[in-house]
Amino acid sequence: MIYALDIGTRTVIGVLAEKIDEKIVVYDSEIMEHEERAMSDGAIQDVQKVSQIVKRVTRTLSERNQIELTKASVAVAGRFLKTSIGEAELNVEEERAISSDTIRLLEMNAIQASMEQLRSDGREMYCVGYSVLFYTLDGEWIKNLQGHRGKVVTVKVIAAFLPAYFVNAMMNVLELSGLTPQHMTLEPIAAINLVVPPDLRKLNIVLADVGAGTSDIAVSRDGTVIAYSVVPMAGDEITESLCERFLLDFQTAEMVKRRISTEDVDTVTVYDILDTEVNITREVFIETVAPVIEEITQKIADETIELNGKPPVAALIVGGGAKSFSFVDVLGKKLNLSSHRAALKSIENLPNVEDRSGKLRGSEYITPVGIAYSVDTHTSSVFVRVSINGKSVDLMGIDNKNTVMQALLQCGYRIEEIIGKPGPALTYELNGEVKIVKGTMGQEASIKIEGETGRVQSRLKHGDSVSFKPGKEGKSPELFLSSVVPPIPLVLNGNKISLMPRVTINGNELTGDETELDRAKLARIQYLKTKMRPRLAAQIGDYGDNITDVTRALVLGEAIRIGIVTDIDTITLYNQYIDFMLQAYGGAEAILKVLGENTNSLSNHLVNGYYFAKQQIMAVTEDDEDPITAINSVDLE
Fold first, then answer.
1. Is the Cβ–Cβ distance between 551 and 601 less than 8 Å?
2. Which of 192, 253, 346, 508 gets the most CB atoms within 10 Å of its CB?
3. Confidence at 409, pLDDT banded by 50, 70, 90
């Protein structure tokens, strides 16, 4: 049995249901209104008051059906919802067939890319799910990668994020109500899963879930859901317009709105907060709410067109807030749709819903039934709260596959810390031929789940405690001249000797008189230069078009001079940049003046670190204890 809870701004709806074949069968439901405004715009404001009504709904359903309810599936509203597109690529040439683990890693990389692009305004954000927009295999679109074979795969995902306190508030409400979260999803995901099944998503449809506090939007096209968004206005703004004009309390104004919008009445008589009788006619009601409905529908239409790039071919509207007078017609016109292309969907008209309770009427039941329907569709989130090194992490995935990898990424760990990045390779030229010596493999992270050894692919369940020690980056190889250019064995007058060929390193010829110590110094300095290249590229850019100011130009020029940067295209672009700067600043003296003003920014630069390390190497003498070891121990900070 599935227990779905729609904890909304005005009401809490509980549904008991079961998935049978392709239908969701509803056995019972209960709806209760908040006694006070404990929620605003879909966000929980008073955890205690919201948990009290959740307890009442749960207890009523439990007693009436004589079952114990300990787990609940819920949905969070999309206020402050942020979405981000992420892409990733993997080389799979060595795999016989692409596995589910490879696909999972590909998707996780894409989610991490979307996180890096996310503008969170300094707030902690939780990834509440993602949808795969498409995969490619060797540059060609493909529906499912698993089992195929190729060279390069890519994925593009749309990931959804909400502020952490939204999720934490929902978790706390469930905990105070004695419930464990079974599934969690976004409200628009729940609604579109029920109303727009996959075979209809080839059509360009917008679904607007208009509740009391927010209007959630989902857009389908080309067989997938391409966008989610939210407008932080809905039915409550319509009610508040009545409160302001007629001096009514919120409950009374809500009653007036419902009666005139849904019943065949011309006048409703109520008392205002001063106990004065007020007669509200249908004409006056329309005059009062029309400007607010215009504003809300305009914002929904603007957001839809911005997401979709054009008006959709149809609009499906759900939620109690959309039952207000003329709301659907006005929204249809804002989207340039004919009257039969915008419709208010009711739960009783959906072919995939069987109501055995006899209670389901209207569009406000779409979301709670959609939550129940999403439990077995692998598009909602299996919600788990786990701890990583004592820190609580709330995970929501849309495919019921929460892993250690997800939890670690959610905590902010980088891929390199999780899987152990290989050490940088060492590249050199031998007689014009490029040679590459790979670095050592990174050390994998240490993972224990409830004290037992785990892996990044290990599945997590609610309450798991994970101990994590980050992996370590591998080391760059140490390469000695003797292993690159071995001495030539000769026999002279019957005696075996070794003769070193003529060797130059970066233009410096070895005379043959160099001691082992001299050769060790040269080798170590070359090693440091090789190690410097990726670090330098990360700090100033290893390409000419990243030279954005004189200070960077100075650093890059110094790196070229000492042989750290050797790429001919980069050097050419650097020289072109200097020519440009000479013209822009009016000569070399002007540039030197600018450089002098920027020297402080170079005091802690990587190039200085290289010079310091080189000085340490050159200072080693034969008199030092174990000088070779001393040289090889010098490294960049």
1. yes
2. 192
3. confident
